[in-house]
Amino acid sequence: MTLNLEIISPQNIFYSQEVELVILPGIEGDFGVLKNHMPLLTYLRLGIIYVYKQKKLMNSFLVNGGIVEVLDNKCTLLTEDILESKDFKVQSDSNIEKLKLKLTKNLHYK
Amino acid sequence: MPSLKDLRNRISSVKSTKKITSAMKMVAAAKLKRAQDNAERSRPYAQKMSEIVNSLVRNKGEKEFKYGEKKNSKPKNVLLVVCSADRGLCGGFNTSIIKYAKKLSEKLKKEGKITNYIFLGKKAYFSLKRSYEKSILDFFSDIANPSVKFELAGMVRDKILELFLNGSIDECHLIYTKFQSAISQSVNSLQLLPLSKKNQEDTKEDKSSISYDFEPDEEVILNEIIPRNVAIQIHTALLENLASEHGSRMTAMDNATRNANDMIDDLTLFYNRSRQALITKELIEIISGAEAV
Questions:
Q1: Of B131, B104, B127, B276, which is closest to residue B191 (Cα–Cα)?
Q2: Which of A62, A98, B141, B241 is the most buried (most CB within 10 A)?
Q3: Residues B15, B99: one domain?
Q4: What is the ipTM of this complex?
Q5: Residue B122 near residue B94 (C-beta atoms within 8 A)
Q6: Containing H/E element for A14?
């Protein structure tokens, strides 16, 4: 039995795979989810999600808020703002500011 | 009897109408595909969200919470959020929404409740504006121009929550058209607020006893998740509505094109008959004239 991670955005099912460990930026601090985690419901702050398979980092995502439900070895993340980290390229410092602005602009919720 | 010239004019006018309707049909078909994809892709999100909210509310049981039912007072002010299209020429789409809204508000009035309205989309607004003038709280148009934006749902959500929290409304229903297929759509209503156990009787009860670990705590999560849920339900409703609009328009325009074709056939037949009759009449006149001489 492994842990199933599903990231759902209003546009599509963003990511759905069997994983070993996922580290999420929770509102009260980062937390990791392994299999047989107890049922948990929390929400996220702006941060990075790390996905591990066979002790190796498989994917990382930039996320801006969202709701996480962990239940029966299934971790479901509902979010409006998510981006695969490798799609997030920074060329110069001014770009960082622009992206920061864009990220905060897209923030629909406080 | 119309002259040949009149008939020719009529045929050409029907032909140009047919060109318009068949073009509209094709545009609607192209847009339908995209709108349908969007609507279907937003479903898992909305579904999961309402699942979570439902199980949270069930856990909450009879206790009062910020967005829950108020005890000791019967809901009196009801808000209806009516989603319609911005444009016409889409068959019975807008009419059925308007009819449904009217029926629901009459039912609510009979129960002694006061109804208020927020309109999304021009068509329902303009046709119900007169009858409900004083109870229209807000109106948004150009909802799908160029595409349905999440920000709009956020704006409507903010408005609804503000009204709910300051006590101006006690109940909120969303009226929209659920997309089933290009030829079948059905008008639905959905209770957005308050969240109560009662209106979930039809959903499955199997998950009633999950005890989640909450971070930071249940109250905070409920207050965070419910506004999100309201926004996403509005957003999905708008997407479904848009897909239904295009589907409905496609069918209506398909029918119109077919009717135009039938009409052209009939008129052409009639035109040829009249022309033939005229020629025959002229020939008879010439022959009988020649015989007389």
A1: B104
A2: B241
A3: no
A4: 0.75
A5: no
A6: strand A13-19
Q: What is the pTM of this model?
A: 0.82
Nearest to A108 among B42, B150, B216 (CB): B150
Residue at token pair 């410092």: A93
- The nearest CA of chain A is from the CA of B235 a distance in Å of 9
| B172 in active site | no
Q: Name the token pair of B187.
A: 């008008």
Same structural domain for residues B213 and B283?
A: no
pLDDT per residue as tens digits for the range B89-104: 888 899 999 999 999 9
Chain B residues with CB inside 8 Å of A27's CB? 215-216
* Same structural domain, B46 and B98: yes
Asked whether residue B87 falls in the same domain as residue B181, the answer is yes
Residues in chain B with CB shorter than 8 Å from the CB of A38 are: 213
Element (H, E) at B152: helix B150-165
The answer to whether the beta carbons of residues A9 and B191 sit under 8 Å apart is no
**Helix or strand run (H / E) with residue A15:** strand A13-19
* Backbone dihedral angles phi then psi of residue A14, each to the nearest 5 degrees: -75, -35
